[in-house]
Design the sequence.
């Protein structure tokens, strides 16, 4: 089933007799879910005010269309949304609704925050078929919830997004990337030193075959000065300073490009930055680090529970590609809260059942 307007989405949900599998661009196919596919193709930018740095668009709008529109005005989505399709082996075009549903946040998260931090409004259809707008019509059974934050990262289990709104930022006119050829074991020290400096780092990670990478963005003179000073701070690791040619490294980092096409199950860990290299090493070292070490992409042998290999760690893990459930079981108190939310927003259990427990 394909819907191209919010009214069609309302009708589809109200008429549903069985569970629905929510589909956007099909680039993040986590979990083998049952249910009738419901493809959200509500597309188009409904409002863009460059002077106010705000944009609203249908949830099915391709991410590329959003990025092209704001780039033409010298602006950008602050959180640098990543594309996962290639590393997951999934065809399709990433949509802005899918980005929100998965709270997809790229390397700039260390500076600008996550997707949910830039999201300022949502429209969605709940499990009763009611269209809900944050800040508009208030439903009696959701009063008191921050609906914007709640929908980001809910993976379509609480409602089906029809429209999203973002705050934007001016695009940086210049950037510099510092590259240090260091092994995984040294990554934590390098990235901590960079992020702990006063030079406003906008990205910090580690890629196999490349080493540690750190990014500075802003006005040309400021970038030149800060990159030079940061190189002095990191002098022990012999940094090489790259200018615009370093942009490709950040696309590779955001999409875990070094792991594309390789065999094994793909896992994603969110941990303390200081723990990232340790977790990656326990998993065998076939890894990419982002968010200063706080995000670990790793490949392990098929049907291996990477959580057991990585222990002990503080954080959470997701099986992005493999035979195990995508999301780990929630602790009892959290599971109770999750059930309560689903009961309120999706009382008939229509949306992506079993997706998150």
Sequence:
């Amino acid at each position: 089933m394909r819907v191209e307007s919010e009214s069609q989405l309302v009708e589809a949900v109200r008429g549903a007799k069985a569970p629905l599998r929510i589909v956007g661009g099909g680039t993040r196919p986590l979990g083998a879910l049952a249910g009738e596919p419901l493809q959200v193709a509500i597309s188009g930018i409904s409002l863009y005010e460059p002077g106010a740095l705000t944009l609203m668009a249908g949830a099915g709008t391709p991410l590329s269309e959003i990025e092209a529109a704001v780039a033409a005005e010298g602006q950008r989505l602050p959180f640098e949304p990543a594309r996962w399709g290639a590393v997951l082996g999934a065809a399709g075009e990433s949509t802005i609704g899918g980005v929100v549903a998965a709270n997809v946040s790229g390397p700039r998260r260390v500076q600008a925050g996550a997707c949910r931090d830039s999201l300022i409004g949502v429209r969605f259809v709940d499990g009763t078929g009611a269209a809900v707008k944050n800040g508009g019509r208030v439903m009696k059974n959701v009063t008191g919830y921050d609906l914007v934050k709640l929908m980001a990262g809910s993976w379509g289990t609480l409602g089906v997004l029809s429209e999203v709104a973002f705050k934007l930022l001016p695009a940086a006119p210049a950037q510099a990337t510092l590259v240090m050829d260091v092994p995984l074991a040294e990554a934590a020290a390098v990235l901590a030193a960079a992020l702990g400096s006063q030079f406003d780092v906008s990205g910090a990670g580690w890629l196999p075959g490349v080493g540690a990478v750190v990014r500075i963005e802003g006005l040309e003179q400021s970038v030149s000065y800060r990159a030079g000073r940061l190189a002095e701070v990191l002098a022990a690791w012999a940094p090489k300073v790259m200018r615009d040619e370093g942009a490709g490294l950040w696309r590779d980092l955001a999409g875990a490009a070094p792991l594309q096409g390789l065999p094994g199950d793909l896992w994603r860990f969110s941990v303390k930055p200081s723990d990232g290299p340790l977790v990656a090493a326990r998993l065998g070292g076939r890894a990419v680090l982002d968010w200063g070490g706080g995000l670990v992409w790793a490949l392990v042998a098929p049907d291996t529970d990477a959580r057991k290999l990585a222990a002990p760690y503080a954080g959470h893990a997701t099986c992005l590609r493999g035979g195990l459930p995508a999301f780990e079981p929630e602790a009892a108190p959290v599971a109770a809260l999750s059930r309560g939310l689903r009961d309120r927003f999706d009382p008939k259990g229509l949306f992506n059942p079993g997706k998150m427990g």
Q: What stands out?
A: The chain has two domains: 2-170, 174-254. The radius of gyration is 21 Å.
